[in-house]
Amino acid sequence: MKWMIRVDMEGVTGVVNMNQVVPGAADYHSGLRMLKHDLASVLEGLLLAPEDRVVLYDIHFWGTNVELDELDPRVSVICGKPNYTPDNMSFVNDTFDGVILLGLHSKAGTPGGLLAHNYEHDIVCMSVNGLVVGEIGLEALIAGEAGVPLVMVTADSEGARETNELLPGTLTVVVKESLGDMSALCYPPSLTRKRLKAAAALCVETAPRLTPFLMSGPIELDMKFKPGALLDKLKTRIYGSFVDEDRIILTGGSVIEAWEQYLIAKA
């Protein structure tokens, strides 16, 4: 089978603060070590047959967090975070059996959510046609437009809860229990390895039962921002999309079309 794994860092084993996930920060090496652990565990459960294939897309920060040296030759990696566009369909197409989100987190404003945010920490809230989503929901919608279901999410407890409420049937793996914005009850790698591998192995039988997550067009992507440099930049680039001092609405025939407008404007 063929899988796309979107790789983030805030929701991997043992990570509880931004110093562990920001390149160059004091504890970034510990976050990388835990990312490598969780990714290896999931790949061990997915790559069960010689013909199995995985494409990783490193969506965290600058997209240079995945260590390539020890990867199985059946795995390839998209590095550097190229923008999602309607032409590339976020690099997912109907040759994939499913999308997996590894190391995700809950959306901004989640009570008790560990490192909860929406891509940039300046994004206070985002919704698609009135449905409030975070990274999990938006990635699921974009994958759905390519005809591919979201099959598994690995995250903290609140990220898993968000997934279960939004997409019942999608597999979730809890690697730590959220205790607040920067604290969690963390499970040891020896335990999360077993959980991640076992859930990944279930993807083969789960994927055919799931349907892609779709939103009927036209699409309105509504985003609210904190005051700051990002908001100021957007005002100089897409001022016509503002409906309030801190809020924009982007429209398109698809979610990815609306999202691309934001990605271009904020670059």
UniProtKB/TrEMBL annotation:
What's one Pfam family the UniProt record gives for this protein? Peptidase_M55
Cross-referenced InterPro entries = DppA_N, Peptidase_M55, Peptidase_M55_sf
> What residue ranges carry the coiled-coil annotation?
none
Q: What's the protein here called? A: Aminopeptidase
Organism annotation = Paenibacillus hemerocallicola
Q: What is the lineage of its organism?
A: Bacteria, Bacillati, Bacillota, Bacilli, Bacillales
